[in-house]
Design goal:
Elements (H helix, E strand, L loop, with lengths): L2 H18 L12 H15 L3 H13 L7 H14 L3 H14 L6 H13 L10 H16 L6 H28 L3 H14 L6 H14 L3 H14 L4 H9 L8
Amino acid sequence: MSNKLLALLAALILLAAAAGCASTGTETVAPEPKADDNFKKGEELLKSGKYEQARQVYSSVKEVDPEKTYEPLVQIRLGDSYYEEARYAEADVEYKRFLDLHPHNKAAPYVKYQLGMCNFKQIDLPDRDPSFAENSVKHFSELLKDYPNNPYEDEAKEKLKIAKDDVAAHELVVGRFYYKKDSYMAAVKRFKGIIDNYPGSKDEPEILYYMADSYIRLEDYESAKNTLAQLYKDYPNNKMSEKARDNLAEKIPAK
């Protein structure tokens, strides 16, 4: 368990205890001792890797916690138990349920980060289904936008860059497929979509090269010139810039 999560859980447990001990005016409602004990037992089981047993104990907390002081924590830990077991689809469901029930909870940034990680952990090769990378981009982007200066910001930015590169790589594979089939308009649409939606990806020099070549084959020389200008400006020493100077520049008619 990360230090950040330990600190978060400690804070939430204190909040739960405070909420459970709140005065009702005539009496003080104390948290059920059994709920506290069961939650601690679930933590021990989770730490020892006994995930199914941990989930059973966490679920039992709800039955002995009428004030629902531990309910947010239990929901998080159900998600965490699946995540640590690498059952990311089930973790995704539990984390989403938490955000549906507690969108403004102090733990929301952590849960949003975990949703991104559930998808990030399942990113595959660029020629496979890109949905996990796309979902990672969605969750990490929303985390950075909705929860500025959150404790997971640096990690989210790093993972977001990797996920964006993965989506761009997939789109490049599709674009090159159209390029090889002489479907240059479809290829340009894919290449341009990458540049617009995932700027600065690691494959951008190659994308710009094939987009310029596609424009040339479509005899859209002005767009080709603009694309090559961007390639030369942004990546002057890249091998794709050298290749473009050798193979493409001469194909554009001089005015």
